[in-house]
Amino acid sequence: MKKSKRSNVDPFIVMDVMEAARKAEQAGKKIIHMEVGQPGTPAPKLANEYIKKELKNNNLGYTVTLGLPQLRSRISKLYGDWYNIDLNPERVIITTGSSGGFILSFATLFDAGERVGIGSPGYPSYRQILKAQNLVPVDIETKLQNKYQPTSEDIKKNNLNGVLVASPANPTGSMLNKSSLRKLIECSKEHNVSFISDEIYHGLEYESKAVSALEITDHCYVINSFSKYFSMTGWRVGWMIVPEDHVRQVEKVSQNLFICPPHASQITALAALDAKEELDQNVNVYKKNREILLEELPKAGFTTFSPPDGAFYIYVDISKFSNDSLSFCKKVLDEAGVAITPGLDFDQKRGANTIRFSYARSTEDIIEGAKRIKKFMSSYN
User: Which domains are assigned to the chain?
Assistant: First the structure.
């Protein structure tokens, strides 16, 4: 049987790095994981205890497609707490992770062949999900001086049907302030470009609070998840917020693609929303880890990067050392026992000259990782 052209997507290289690191650990080597956006903490204790009790009741099954009403209502309250927004819970749709949110957003907003702008460097799965839906991903080549964020001019000149903006962003950790985000949203509206805001790293900010697109407009899609701030990557539960007149359309697509999000994950997420104290302690760990790498990476020779505003990544230019980031990362893994991610995932044109460090793990691991990297770079040629 033939395979469809639209299924011919690129691999997610960071997953290959994870597998190489796993094999090294299986062989008995101690690996420091700085390759993946996997919090070093589990789901909040409060949430874990809650789901244990619910599992004993054995009442799990299908939920309504849009998600548990109490979870949707609790998320709408979160927007009041975080952004002082009075959000109608009917606009909140629970998804199977943020990935489910992207699939539903693209399927609802765009017809086959339409053009969607994404920042480069940026999260690679945007591009591959768009391609799999027979849409055209348009890489916006962002610049270091703009903190690797798109500008209004990028929207004007690319003949777009939609644009997806992430703040804080992966892999750079950069954020848009309210003025910059407003300019992008207003420019999108002026040019009839659908606006999608990826806010999965909200809650993970270090010097100023991230701005939600919903603080500026209701005419957008917002996607978030319990994976990052809530430390629930493996639970695969997230949410999206859409205009009221789009809810039914998204619901119909979701009914057929997903039926409903996982019931157990929704229950756990509901409890996680009340674990603020524990979650904020996690953020303090990331903040400390960030400070360590901002101090130690330049000592190892890595000096060209934009200090991250949020998330838990630092995206570094290594062009003075190598123009083959994949081989460079393999060498670091083999010789230093540190797993890091080549930039090829994030930027198809310039990724061979960049790498991404994740500082989501324990501070002890970050200190050891920095020590190993400095030793490796001292003898690198």
Answer: 5-43+277-378 (3.40.640.10), 45-274 (3.40.640.10)
